[in-house]
Amino acid sequence: MGKGRLTALIAALITILMLAFPDESFKASLAGLKLWFDIVLPALLPFFAMADILMGLGVVHFMGALLEPFMRPAFRIPGVGGFAVAMGLAGGYPIGARITGELYRKGLCNRVEAERLLAFANTADPLFIVGAVAVGMFGMPEIGAALIIGHYLGAVIVGILMRFYGTGEPESPPQAKRGTPGFLGYLRRAVNELDRARQADGRTFGQLFGDTIRDTFAAMLFIGGCIMMFAVLSAILDRAGIMGYLTVPLGRILGFFGVDPDLTIPIIHGFFETTLGSQSASTAAAPLAQRAMAASLVIGWSGLSVHSQVSVMILGTPIRMGPYMLARIGHGVAAAVITLALLGPGAAFTSWLAGAVPVFSPSTGAALSFAGRLALSAQWAGVLGLSTALLSLLARFMGRVVFIGPKR
Predict the structure, then answer these.
(1) Distances in Å between the alpha carbon of 163 and those of 65, 115, 215, 303?
(2) Strand intervals (E) in 239-279
(3) Rg of the chain over CA atoms, in angstroms?
(4) Residue 25 Cα distances to 21, 234, 273, 304, angstroms
(5) Mean pLDDT in the chain?
(6) Residue 176 lies in a domain
(7) What 8-state DSSP symbol labels residue 109?
């Protein structure tokens, strides 16, 4: 059977199941819509908008020139990848994928470098991990430290391992040739890159802002549709009993590794949608450390719902999903192992960190309203964006004062 016929058959079967279980489909669709509106939309909207504005203003090129000496040796990625990583860590998926796709389209990285970047720049955000999962689902803000460390340390491990992917492939040329040595030389090149990128964009700030709002809302609507569709898919497969055929073999695998078989359902749900899997893990009849480990695995894997969003963010580019999917598996496993270790042998350190860092307090909670989440996310995005913009303006001023002579 050809790929097209198989896809058509699967789509037809899903449609039949939706017609067979209309009540479950409707309730799951509403649950997905509520999840998107209450958590995803207010958390991602400011970061999506800020990322587009900073790219249009040339700040990304400025950061790329400054981070070039670090990103290439550590991850074999151009310096502009540092912007994708920072925004991905702060804003959550799929913003890292969106920025990666834009960097490739603008010719700032080649295909292999984009695949390396995509593998570890597309992560969950702290607001979701601590606020939604640790506080809202588990009701235990103290485990937020273990979940965050596991997730982000796992991402760094994946990034380091991915530097060996595509060995022998050519690298994209640096943004600027070496001129003045030392920090001042990098600073001057960064300022020049910012100026060149802004002139190449050519849009007024009003045009840039209008394009940003239009594109951001289109992307957010697509993300909402993905969440709703995969929520419905998970619900009807569960109602049809298909999930049951997957629980038995997975339960045996988990039992072989000493993991409670009750975590099979959360992992299967998380295979499709991250939030559903995390919610199921929080209520499973298993030890706390193993429930947190399952949630960390699901968040690292990020679910088919997020993967479908990523595939659209890189649409029209030759960036392949295969390396990304393998990296998601590695990220999930690494995050799960680290989380289990932090809640087991490293429990004392995790407890100290949870008490010492204010972000792991219950005030970060998922009980925030839509307006509260939007305000908190906008605050984080604003601080990140303004800090980056002010840094570039300061560097631009220093460049005009320190350097004499024509630009290179």
Answers:
(1) 19, 10, 32, 24
(2) none
(3) 22
(4) 6, 9, 15, 18
(5) 80
(6) yes
(7) S
